[in-house]
Amino acid sequence: MTKPGSEPPTILQNRLFYQGRKFSFDVNTLRLPNGVEGDWECIRHPGGALVIPVTSEGKLVLVKQYRFAVAGRTLEFPAGTIEPNEDPAETVKREIEEETGYRAHRWQKLGQFILAPGYCDEIIYAFLAQDLEKLETPPQQDEDEDIETVLMTPKELEQAILDGEPVDAKTISSFLLAKPFLNI
């Protein structure tokens, strides 16, 4: 006898509702192993990569970025969407320079996590970046981004999270992965 939940549902129909620049949205009609049928929506995303930059003074380099969905600025570690056929390590190397004007010379992969499995298949790959160099001429930011660079100690970021400041979930999750390496 198989355990409940060990059998995958049967996909009866898949309908693409929207194909956007960064993600798609589809609706799937499924039959669960218990025979129940229903529709499940899913955002299909190519994945993202996030970097936790740490200066030689032990400060974290974050960005405050305007996010339309929440109608405000959120505190985040630099991150970006993985381009087709791109390794997540290349994504973070590009994003740290574009978003903060820093380049890192020492990298460590921290892990990966599923961002919102209830409705999205996006996986975030997290990296620690150290031995930072401030670029003399930082690259131009993407024209659709409104970003401010912020330096914080790990304790300041932890307090901002605990105080309920608008810090996004990928930053909070990645901070947890990085804490053993941050001497706090």
Automatic annotation (TrEMBL):
> Where are the coiled-coil regions?
none
Q: What sequence ranges are listed for the domain Nudix hydrolase?
A: 43-179
The EC designation for this entry is 3.6.1.13
- GO BP: any one term: nucleoside phosphate metabolic process
Top-tier EC class: hydrolase
Keywords, in A-Z order: Hydrolase
What InterPro entries does its record include?
NUDIX_hydrolase-like_dom_sf (IPR015797), NUDIX_hydrolase_CS (IPR020084), NUDIX_hydrolase_dom (IPR000086)
Query: Is Hydrolase a UniProt keyword of this protein?
Result: yes
CDD domains according to UniProt: NUDIX_ADPRase_Nudt5_UGPPase_Nudt14 (cd03424)
Q: Name one Pfam family in it.
A: NUDIX
Per its UniProt record, the required cofactor names are:
Mg(2+)
Q: Show the GO MF annotations.
A: ADP-ribose diphosphatase activity
Question: Is Hydrolase tagged as a keyword?
Answer: yes
Record protein name field: NUDIX hydrolase
